[in-house]
Specification:
The complex is a heterodimer of chains A (432) and B (550).
Chain A: E1 3-4, E2 15-22, H1 25-38, E3 42-45, E4 48-51, E5 60-65, H2 69-80, E6 88-96, E7 103-113, E8 122-132, H3 133-137, H4 139-143, E9 153-156, H5 166-173, E10 177-180, H6 193-202, E11 206-209, H7 210-213, H8 216-225, E12 238-247, H9 260-273, E13 276-283, H10 293-308, E14 313-314, E15 320-326, E16 329-339, E17 347-356, E18 359-368, E19 371-378, E20 381-389, H11 395-404, H12 410-422
Parallel strand pairs in A: 5-6, 5-9, 6-8, 9-10, 10-11, 12-16
Antiparallel strand pairs in A: 1-2, 2-7, 3-4, 7-8, 12-17, 13-15, 14-16, 15-16, 17-18, 18-19, 19-20
Chain B: H1 26-33, E1 61-66, H2 71-86, E2 94-100, H3 106-120, H4 127-134, E3 137-141, H5 147-164, E4 170-174, H6 181-190, E5 203-207, H7 215-228, E6 234-236, H8 244-254, E7 268-276, H9 285-310, H10 319-332, H11 338-344, E8 345-348, E9 350-351, E10 353-355, E11 358-360, E12 378-384, E13 394-400, E14 407-414, E15 433-439, E16 443-451, E17 459-467, H12 468-472, H13 479-489, H14 498-517, E18 526-527, H15 534-541
Parallel strand pairs in B: 1-2, 1-4, 2-3, 4-5, 5-6, 7-13, 9-18
Antiparallel strand pairs in B: 7-14, 8-12, 10-11, 12-13, 14-15, 15-16, 16-17
Helix pairs in contact in B: 2-3, 2-13, 6-7, 7-14, 9-10, 9-14, 10-14
The chains are: A alpha/beta (432), B alpha/beta (550).
């Protein structure tokens, strides 16, 4: 039974205007029709009653696949904050009990936002579906009849999306954009990259990864260094990229810490510069096996990093290495874990070394509280010391950005493809 | 040594000398296309910049604010800088060097700015960001006529570069009385603060309106400015161009396929542009007596809006391409004869009345205003653009003080349908209207006819209303935030060029000159709180039209 909520709306605050339940797709459609039959969309302008046609605004369909009900509630709370900014028909699907009988329970709500006191409310619907048994296994069959036609479809799949599964493929067939968070995947997280790159390659689905979006200020900081005309030529002569990231695993074993964010730094630079992979990413062995100059230099930097970040401890000899080709030269890539109090998988430092005509450029990018700091030295002489303010972004900010992102994002597509290439022959230990 | 071209860029290499990394031959390009050889970008391009969507943070820089103790600095410039700082859009290595005559030190000036932010910031002021912002403000005392003050300023800016890492990049912002512009610019030139350095270190200057008070003075001022700075270093502000809806006008026109085909004399009946203010002259009587509505709004805001509505699509979205198109429109405005000025331009002055439930005095009773003043506080005009697209389409513009409400909008009134099809309808369908609201409630309204529900075939006009507030629910940046950030980034698209300013003056100056030769007007001729003198309504009524109710 429907409940009409007639609370006085306040400008800028989402107000629940409708809530009802249904147990079939037809029932959901009937409830959706009822919402717009009763909501008063008439407003008064200059003493004259005018009908505002665009009061129910939907700019897209947002489909959320949340495997746990609490995750679904969490996503619903985030989406309600976007009602005004990105009004959408939202479908939150929580499949459950796949081996049980088929059933479906849906809650239909409408949130409205009053942009200003004399305007029509901007309203958007949320349909929260919990489905069991076979019904829950066929998410696409639930979603498709409930989409508003002619509007783009964004699928937000928090947690661990089975990207290569039939269930996912069916759902993606009618979608325009996939939103994920690679840094939340279990293990080192690298196992899904190949499938993700395949989705990008289809050209049908734009992929937006929160993990990549969180690094945008790092990219700005690194790119700004090469805005300096004197340093730009070094970009084609990069010889080493080293990324230090945080772990909570005292032993620094491969596969225990999500490496998506650190890897994306390398993948972004490599893709923009057109590098190719000579040796894919592989776990470094014991300390004795890593006596290369590259490794020794990196160990020194990791120790330096340890000094700068209270509570971090370098794990000598652990991490990953790869070799890339840039022009005629080789680029050594090292990704090194250090013990830290920061969340595991957080990037702590990115270092670039470039050598050109006997001259050396070293760039060191670190995160300090809410800033990203860039230092650059040319032949040992400090050229640059800049800080970029980088406030931490909430999931609301990231989801808003995901929705606003262009259909084809060359940074994202390039980084995902390159990340998949870099890990191509990687052993899969530790991957969930 | 490698020869350089006139603009300082290295000249092309001598014949036969290979250019490394850049594919030039057909084979190189083919290999690059096939992925067998990577196409390296030009050395001038930073490939890491490609595709970055985050707002670019400007280079480290000092902003040198002349007139820092003045009203404009306190109300607009400093709050805009604070908001840019708060949202991480200013570089960490940023310093505001406030220049003024008053005997302040850093701490006193910072305390004053702290209070200013509480009063004028459009967002709640947060303690942490405010403290950090204030720590980046330093005060430099000096009279603009004092050469020593500029010598000291030069030394101080060098010291700031060393201590704060601002790398020699300087944005000079003239928020002073316009009478001080040439003096400050000459002093900057004298101490070499206009010189850009090889290792980076750009120098730019932002100049506030009014840019001249007639065509001659604008030409003289341009000449003085360009004696010291090159045109590409000069950013002349018209803050209307920074407003979200004005910027959106370009997106609306050139980012949508369905409107541009209608944007011409075949479908448009006429255009109305209104910039209405409910405020009076706000203790600026002396300034306004010399300015009037023509110089204050018509020459700049209204001419810019008209040019943006009427211009042809630019070839690229670059500063000069945009400004070239705007200049073409201004040049195509028919020059007015004295008779046309008498018939097509209406001036007015407000008398006492009621605005927003407050009784307000007439203009002549305002402080610092001549009791027999002939200064216009209202102007309405009918312009025609002599070009292929707009021939015969009147552009009506109006602006005034003490009108019933603050409201600016551009209305494109389309022609009526050619044939009355719904004869049973109780009224004829209204012609379509497209209104672009600039302030307040920035947005776009499209009016079209719809059938009234029921058995008959009644047609009623309905509105499809897009407001930024409801579609995005995010704050639009203030125009000053947009423009200051653009100036720091070196993007001049939203600033006016010397020839643009002079063209606008060449339209407005003959009008002002003609008024001097006319008999004294019967001022005041409109009541405060009304929509201007009756003559403004008659201006449209004689064409069978009326001003849109706003």
């Amino acid at each position: 039974m429907a409940t009409d909520l007639t609370a006085e709306p306040r400008p800028g605050e989402p107000t629940m205007r409708w809530t009802s339940r249904a147990t079939t797709i037809d029932g959901i459609e009937r409830e959706l029709a009822k919402i717009w039959a009763v909501t008063d969309l008439t407003t008064e302008v200059d003493g004259v009653e005018e009908r505002h046609i665009a009061a129910r605004t939907s700019v897209m369909n947002l489909v959320v696949v949340a495997r746990q009900p609490e995750l679904g509630e969490h996503c619903a709370a985030i989406i309600s904050q976007l009602t005004g900014r990105h009004p959408s028909r939202t479908l939150i699907c929580s499949p459950t009990d796949p081996d049980g009988p088929s059933w479906l329970d849906a809650r239909i709500t409408a949130h409205c936002m009053l942009p200003r006191s004399d305007a029509a409310e901007t309203c958007a619907e949320t349909i929260y579906v919990i489905a069991g048994g076979d019904t829950g296994r066929h998410i696409a069959a639930i979603v498709e009849p409930l989409l508003v036609h002619d509007l783009p479809v964004t699928v937000w799949w928090p947690g661990e999306p089975p990207l290569g599964s039939v269930q996912a493929r069916d759902l993606f067939e009618n979608a325009d954009r996939l939103v994920i968070d690679g840094s939340s995947w279990t293990g080192d997280g690298l196992g899904r990259l190949a499938e993700l790159a395949r989705l990008v390659d289809t050209g049908q689905l734009a992929v937006f990864d929160f993990a990549l979006a969180r690094q945008s200020r790092w990219r700005e900081a690194i790119a700004s260094t090469f805005d300096m005309p004197d340093l730009l030529p070094y970009l084609r002569s990069i010889r080493r990229i080293a990324v230090t990231y945080g772990t909570h695993d005292e032993l620094g074993r491969p596969g225990t810490t999500n490496m998506i964010k650190p890897l994306y730094h390398v993948a972004w630079i490599a893709s923009r510069l057109g590098m190719t992979v000579l040796k894919p990413l592989s776990a470094l062995g014991a300390p004795a096996a890593a006596a290369s100059h590259l490794h020794a230099t990196h160990a020194a930097h990791a120790a330096h990093a340890a000094g700068k970040h209270a509570g971090v401890k370098p794990l000598a000899g652990r991490g990953y290495a790869a070799t890339m080709r840039l022009g005629q030269g080789e680029v050594g890539v090292v990704m090194r874990p250090v013990i830290t109090g920061m969340p595991a998988g957080t990037t702590l430092r990115v270092e670039l070394l470039a050598e050109r005509r006997g001259s050396e450029l070293r760039i060191d990018v670190t995160a300090e509280a809410e800033t990203v700091a860039v230092h650059a030295w040319q032949d040992g002489v400090e050229l640059l010391d800049r800080r970029f303010l980088a406030a931490r972004r909430t999931e609301i900010d990231l989801l808003a950005e995901a929705i606003e992102a262009p259909r084809r994002d060359i940074v994202s597509d390039g980084a995902i493809r390159m990340a998949a290439r870099i890990v191509a022959a990687r052993p899969t230990e530790g991957e969930a | 040594m490698e020869p350089a071209s006139a603009d300082g860029a290295p000249a092309s290499p001598p014949a036969g000398r290979p250019v490394r990394d850049v594919p030039r031959t057909i084979r190189d390009l083919r290999l690059a296309r096939d992925g067998k050889r990577k196409a390296a970008p030009s050395k001038l391009d930073n490939p890491l910049r490609e595709g970055l969507r985050l707002e670019r943070v400007p280079d480290p820089a000092s902003l040198v604010l002349f007139g820092a103790t003045g009203d404009l600095a306190h109300r607009k410039v400093v709050p805009a800088l604070y908001q840019l700082w708060r949202t991480n859009l200013l570089p960490h290595e940023f310093m505001l060097v406030a220049v003024g005559r008053r005997a302040y030190d850093d701490l006193t000036f910072q305390a004053e700015i702290g209070k200013t932010l509480e009063s004028y910031s459009r967002v709640p002021v947060e303690t942490g960001p405010k403290a950090e912002f204030l720590s980046r403000i330093t005060y430099h005392q000096g009279d603009f006529a004092d050469p020593d003050a500029f010598d000291r300023l030069s030394v101080r800016l060098d010291a700031i570069d060393e201590e704060r890492g601002t790398r020699g990049n300087r944005l000079f912002y003239l928020a002073t009385q316009s009478s001080a512009f040439t003096e400050v610019i000459a002093q900057l030139g004298r101490v070499g603060l206009d010189h850009e350095t090889h290792g980076g270190g750009w120098r730019r200057i932002v100049i506030e309106k009014p840019f001249g008070r007639d065509l001659d003075s604008a030409i003289r001022l341009n000449r003085e400015v360009l004696k010291v700075f090159r045109e590409k270093q000069v950013y002349r502000i018209d803050h209307y161009l920074g407003k979200e809806t004005v910027r959106n006008l370009l997106v609306f026109r050139f980012g949508n396929g369905i409107f541009e085909p209608l944007w011409n004399r075949r479908y448009v009946d006429h255009v109305q542009i209104t910039v209405a203010e409910s405020l009076g002259i706000e203790n600026r009587g002396a300034f306004y007596e010399e300015t009037g509505a023509s110089r204050d709004v018509l020459q700049n805001h209204l001419m810019q809006l008209l040019a943006l509505v009427a211009m042809e699509p630019p070839a690229t979205f670059e500063a000069d391409a945009l400004r070239d198109e705007k200049v073409k429109v201004l040049r195509a405005l028919s020059p007015m004869t004295p008779d046309e000025i008498r018939s097509d331009i209406v001036r007015g002055q407000y008398g006492p009345g009621w605005v927003a439930a407050q009784q307000v005095p007439g203009y002549r009773a305002e402080p610092e205003v001549d009791p027999a003043s002939e200064t216009e506080t209202f102007v309405a005009a009918r312009f025609e653009i002599d070009d292929w697209r707009w021939a015969g389409v009147p552009f009506y513009v109006r602006t005034g003080k003490r009108l019933p409400k603050r409201s600016s909008e551009i209305a494109i009134q389309f022609r009526p349908v050619p044939h009355r099809l719904f004869k049973d309808s109780s009224e004829d369908p209204e012609p379509n209207l497209l209104a672009l609201r600039i302030q307040p409630d920035e947005g776009i309204l499209l009016r079209f006819g719809a059938k009234v529900p029921g058995l008959g075939l009644d047609v009623r006009a309905v509105n499809m209303d897009f407001t930024y507030g409801s579609a995005f629910n995010v704050d639009s940046p203030d125009a000053y935030e947009t423009l200051i950030l653009d100036a720091l980034l070196g993007d001049a698209s939203l600033f006016t060029r010397a020839d643009e300013v002079e063209e606008a003056w060449s339209i407005v100056t003959p009008i002002i000159d003609a008024w001097i030769d006319m008999p004294a007007p019967a001022f005041p001729d409109y009541e405060a709180g009304s929509w201007g003198p009756e003559a403004a309504d008659e201006l449209l009524a004689r064409d069978g039209r009326r001003w849109r109710r706003i």
